[in-house]
Amino acid sequence: MGDHVVGIAMNGVTGRMGYRQHLTRSVLAIRDAGGVLLPDGSRVIPEPVLVGRSEQKLREIAARHGIERWTTDLDAVLSDDSIEIYFDAQITHAREAAVRAAIAAGKHIYAEKPTAGTLDAALELAKLAQAAGVKNGVVQDKLFLPGLLKLRRLIDSGFFGTILSIRGEFGYWVFEGDWQEAQRPSWNYRAEEGGGIVLDMFPHWHYILEHLFAPVRSVTAHTATHIPDRWDEQGERYTATADDAAYGLFELEGGIVAQINSSWSVRVDRDELVEFQVDGTHGSAVAGLRECRVQHRSTTPKAVWDPDAVDPGQYRSQWDRVPDNEEFPNGFRAQWELFLKHVRADAPFPHDLLSGARGLQLAEAGLRSSQSGARVALDEITL
Ligand SMILES: NC(=O)c1ccc[n+]([C@@H]2O[C@H](COP(=O)([O-])OP(=O)(O)OC[C@H]3O[C@@H](n4cnc5c(N)ncnc54)[C@H](O)[C@@H]3O)[C@@H](O)[C@H]2O)c1
């Protein structure tokens, strides 16, 4: 069987995600490994064409990685028949227009989350992609991380019995930018540029809950802008217009309750930057990005509330580590491989633009809940 080279226009490769995760650790790593094996024994080999705004940055990246083609002209690359896939990791508010143009040009679409700035726009993109008959996908990388893959293994084994609740804790301190450089871009703190932790993280929480547990049926959230003044990449002081913390309560179909805190204004006292505790009738687990620990009902200690005595509990020592039992590739790369198989061999790919739109639905509902103080139900959205 002959191998197929697939041209991919990659927009946003000068950014944090576009460069490190998508270009170098995924597409170039797959290309350099000889491509992805398809069921018929042939291979699909991705060939990136870099797209962006800065000629100089693109030229530098292309030279560093031996990439032949790069351009600042999106329209030109979209009218090029050798390009089959358009990938977008631009700043969120630049995504919709570019994806729309790529669908109109008949390209398959793969995009970072959130797939657009609003639910209406995200749903419209999903509908346009379906009408155009192009394959489409959204990055849902956390599902491919070792900790969550181990959690999935536990769920599939029936370890938990009936799952009752999930508690997630995500966050770390993002420096304000005055006396120590901020480790996130300033647009993250500007609502008018697609910033805000709800828009950033609720799409992640949505696909984790949806794919591992059950569809989300309602949300109650409280958001805050705890740090109102920040300093940007040029050292200029600016006012944060977007939320930097969100305290969310999600009710899932079937009654599971999930509570997830997201904050860029907390200091870490956890083993990992995100951790989810899942409690079930037969066992509990705590999963992070890499590790997962469990406690079965048969080894659950009998905790007794007695504030007058020193607690002999040593609770954290009473959990067992879930072994790897397999090699875990980079999560972004694993999802890219699935998407390439989806494009070329029609392999199943549940991470489509409609799933991406449901992530936006949760983010918008969360913001609405915070504004109104009310619990917001999520109606099913369809194409
Ligand atoms: N999957 C994940 O875990 C994950 C993590 C972080 C960010 N993201 C998503 O990836 C996207 C990019 O985030 P990032 O952290 O890499 O951002 P970044 O600021 O590092 O990169 C943004 C990219 O967009 C380009 N761009 C296009 N128009 C722009 C404009 N008007 N202003 C500024 N930049 C512009 C930049 O040149 C750059 O290539 C966002 O949509 C974000 O939500 C996903």
Automatic annotation (TrEMBL):
One Pfam family this sequence matches: GFO_IDH_MocA_C3
Keywords annotated in UniProt: Oxidoreductase
Keyword Oxidoreductase carried by entry: yes
Residue ranges annotated for the GFO/IDH/MocA-like oxidoreductase domain, each copy included: 149-285
Oxidoreductase keyword on record: yes
InterPro entries for this protein: Gfo/Idh/MocA-like_OxRdtase_N, Gfo/Idh/MocA_oxidrdct_glycsds, GFO_IDH_MocA-like_dom, NAD(P)-bd_dom_sf
Family matches, as SUPFAM superfamilies: Glyceraldehyde-3-phosphate dehydrogenase-like, C-terminal domain (SSF55347), NAD(P)-binding Rossmann-fold domains (SSF51735)
Limits of the Gfo/Idh/MocA-like oxidoreductase N-terminal domain: 50-135
GO MF assignments: nucleotide binding; oxidoreductase activity
Protein name: Oxidoreductase
